[in-house]
Amino acid sequence: AHERTGEAESLEADHEDHASIWPFGIGVGMFVTFLGLSGLTPYVADFATARGAELAGNTAGSENVLYPALSLVGVGILGVALFQYGREEFNAPEMAIAERWPFEGVGTTKTGVWFFLASDVVVFGAVIGAYVFMRIHGGWGTFETVPPSATIGLINTYVLLTSSFTVVIALVMAERGNKRGLLASMGVTLLLGLTFLAIKSYEWGQEFAHGIYWFTELQYSMYFVTTGLHALHVILGLLIAGFMIYRIVSVDAYLEDDRPVEYFGLYWHFVDIVWVILFPLFYLM
């Protein structure tokens, strides 16, 4: 057991416990979201089929709304809870203990970010590995690229690479204490991420119009699952970027402590690297 010093006990006595309802709200939001997702697959399939029929010039539709509504409500609750939890201030005195953290020179938050990215490497590695195994097992040359055109994927590649550059600029601006530069570079990053998602949505719509769905064939399933998983990571990054922009505007955040900008940059660069791997795998090979 750690041996507390008298100074640590004094600091702990002066610091009042900070109760927060928002972790409970996060749990409720996740429960409702996954409750909706548990029955969403048939509804999403109907929506995709209807969307493809509309783009092809036919008419189709679906009136099922229960599970999609539950998913949207859950995402809304989760978003509000995360936002409010992020706004809370937790300024507790650091307690001295008899033993020291062996990686004292490395921040615990940064270490956590790297562990998170390592777990994401495992997730994407499993999905990409499954796709490669499937192609090798079925004969690599028998597969055709799923997207009708590689041009859209190439444009999206340039969009994401440019957004990585703007994130680097954001870190430089934060280090210099330049609020306008930081706000502008983060704003451009947000716009580029939204552009990527808009182009990807258009591309998926065109694929639906050509009768390409994730439930059509196994190779299509792998394509939509992998690129959809990547798109979810982009959405998460955009939510973080939006929250950071809010903090910059409201309380001049990250001008004295630029580490959150660095951590966001690590995540965003990882998302870009994953796309650089997915682009040749699905569009060119």
TrEMBL record:
Cellular localisation: Cell membrane; Membrane
CC terms in the record's Gene Ontology section: plasma membrane
Domain Heme-copper oxidase subunit III family profile: 10-285
Chief location: membrane
Membrane-spanning intervals of the chain: 20-44, 65-85, 113-134, 155-174, 180-199, 220-246, 266-284
Membrane topology: Multi-pass membrane protein
Keywords: Membrane, Transmembrane, Transmembrane helix
InterPro entries, per database record: Cyt_c/ubiquinol_Oxase_su3, Cyt_c_oxidase-like_su3, Cyt_c_oxidase_su3-like_sf, Cyt_c_oxidase_su3_a-hlx
Family per record: Belongs to the cytochrome c oxidase subunit 3 family.
Protein's UniProt name: Heme-copper oxidase subunit III
Species, as recorded: Natrinema soli
Organism classification: Archaea, Methanobacteriati, Methanobacteriota, Stenosarchaea group, Halobacteria
